Amino acid sequence: MNTKSKITILGISFLFLAFSGEVNAQMTKEKTVMVGGAAMYPSKNIIENAVNSKDHKTLVAAVKAAGLVETLQGSGPFTVLAPTDAAFAKLPKGTVETLVKPENKEMLTQILTYHVLPGKLSAKEIWAAVKAGNGKSMMKTVEGEELTFWTKGKDLYVKDAKGNSAKVTIADVNQSNGVIHVIDTVLMP
């Protein structure tokens, strides 16, 4: 290998290292929120972040089974109310296993899209809507039905069509295509 080739390779290697260092520096500058033991990066989309959360394995599997991965990787924006694995564990035994079967894809999709609001709504915006609504705010989901948001003390809650309430346990997990609010109960249309 001649000297010119070595210099070119060395130059390319230096540029690559400089670029990857710049990317790493950019990632560390982002304001992240820890969810399920993993940092959630605002520069990543909902799916890219969710797959790293140890607390959302069931949700990720359900999203895959429903064929919603591509949708939630799209530009959105979306507000996702993300139930934890513990929330799914509260469902009657065998419910999750039944829902992820191919023949139940339509029902699973309905349940999952009931956890998604169009647009990017911060907890502050939802809180303001609740205040403006004299203690509650109805919001239409992507599925088509409404959820009722309400507050108690410093906590934000959401009630489903069946009257079950979920507490927002981690709010404002910003994503490149929306925001996630972690909840402790699965909502049912």
UniProtKB/TrEMBL annotation:
Which segment of the chain is annotated as a signal peptide?
1-25
Q: Name one GO cellular component term.
A: extracellular space
What InterPro entries does the entry give? Answer: Adhesion/Biosynth-related (IPR050904), FAS1_dom_sf (IPR036378), FAS1_domain (IPR000782)
Give UniProt keywords alphabetically: Signal
Q: Is Signal among the key words of this record?
A: yes
Residue span, FAS1 domain: 43-187
Listed PANTHER family: FI19380P1, PERIOSTIN-RELATED
State the protein's name: Fasciclin domain-containing protein
Give the organism the record lists: Chryseobacterium daecheongense
